[in-house]
């Protein structure tokens, strides 16, 4: 295994290698270029994102600023919308389903640093993947920690810290994030206004 393969394997390893450093710098440059673009330059924004990410299906909207570590480990389904300041540390895979809505200032982490301060300073780390199902809404200022799975149709309340798996079809919130209740038919909006 090379350094990048080792990084996403889940094994403890040294994350401060030349190969990893060069890959991080390459993605840092792409994110900088993306975030400096005029919002109207959709064609160039789309070109950078589809080239940087492992997979993203159109249509999608990712507002700047957007930051990730590698990009290549991020796989996103169709009709994705991410508000301002999405940060994804994708040392392991991050899989996001279809029809996912992410609020502003959301952070998704896959990296786990060593607890021992000497090993941490040396760059000893491992990673665990994150998976977000279809039709998920993640509120603003949510933090999703390594190894978390969020099931289809779940809603994560603003400001939550998601430390463990969240099942499908529930409203969950808090720090640590806890299931509040199931989402049911009674949650459907009954009257929707339209322009007159």
Describe the secondary-structure layout.
Elements: H1 3-7, E1 13-14, H2 18-36, H3 42-52, E2 55-56, E3 60-62, E4 66-68, E5 74-76, E6 80-82, E7 86-89, E8 94-96, E9 101-102, E10 107-109, E11 111-113, H4 117-122, E12 124-127, E13 130-132, E14 137-138, E15 143-144, E16 149-150, E17 155-156, E18 161-162, E19 170-173, E20 178-182
Parallel strand pairs: 2-5, 3-6, 4-7, 5-8, 6-9, 7-10, 8-13, 9-14, 10-15, 13-16, 14-17, 15-18, 17-19
Antiparallel strand pairs: 1-12, 11-12, 19-20
Helix pairs in contact: 2-3
What amount of the residues lies in strands? 25-35%
* Strand order, largest beta sheet: 3-6-9-14-17-19-20
The total strand number stands at 20
How many separate helices? 4
Distance between the termini: 62 Å
CATH C-level label: Mainly Beta
Q: How would the global form be characterised?
A: globular
Tally of discrete structural domains: 1
H/E series: HEHHEEEEEEEEEEHEEEEEEEEE
Which class of secondary structure composition applies to the elements?
alpha/beta
Helix content: 10-25%
Q: Can you tell me the residue ranges where pLDDT is under 50 for at least 5 consecutive residues?
A: none
- Radius of gyration computed on alpha carbons: 18 Å
In CATH, what is the homologous superfamily? Answer: Hexapeptide repeat proteins
Q: Mean pLDDT score, rounded?
A: 97
